[in-house]
Amino acid sequence: MPTGMPRADPDPGASKPLEFALAPYICTRPLLAMFQPLADYLEPRIGREVLLVTAPSLREFDRRARNGEYEIAMMSPQVARSAQMAAGYVPLLRVTNDLCGVLVVPEASNVRSVRDLAQRRIALPDRLTVTARLRRELLNAAGVDERSIVYPRTFQDSILLSMLRGEVDAMVMNSAVLCQIPPETRNMIRILGQTRHVAHVVFLARSTMTTEMRRAIRRGITEFFESTPEGERFSRQTGLLGVRPVTEAELKALDHYAPDHRRLLEGGASSRP
Asked: Nearest 5 degrees, angle CA 156-CA 162-CA 166?
């Protein structure tokens, strides 16, 4: 460890890897590979190995978060609020820039406006995502029938590929996912519209973690984004442009999502309407 590098005080769980959970919004392998530089940066600064983990579905991830099973986690804002209220998670930071839902079609499609989608099949990610919830203001205003919307049981990058294969006519994706797809794939799609912007993902820690360890993690994530070449590359690749403290007012503003989110979680594993 370089001389003078800040390090957390000894932690009761220091002999075990610290599990850093990532919400599974894209396929597991690219998700873990994308966040590995952040994990590598944190390790010497907190004095523990950092093990990236996720879950097989958003529903399972949210269930585990509400049960307090993760030491630290990156979650969508409404899931972060739910986990905070259910399991006492401590918010550390939020991503600085906001996110939105982006409506895309294949570049070769004859669809030229949202209204042209009235009789087309439109794919959305899991109903638990904020992206799926935002789509109402974009699609309903254009007269798109709810019966035209499908919720494939897969990740957003896989839904994009199914659209390019012609299995659906359009999709609404998270704006961060749009940043993360390869340029050659990006050139194969066209943007028709976007939703309003909302708060981006939040990093949280289990309440039993020591204050000093939470401070070290917060400091390490902030330094990674603000002061390192790896952080600059990470921001370009992910569309996550920095971090800042999350306010209690921002979290309370998400409370109106809680009843619907709980209903969806309790409704079973199906992602269908």
From this structure: 140
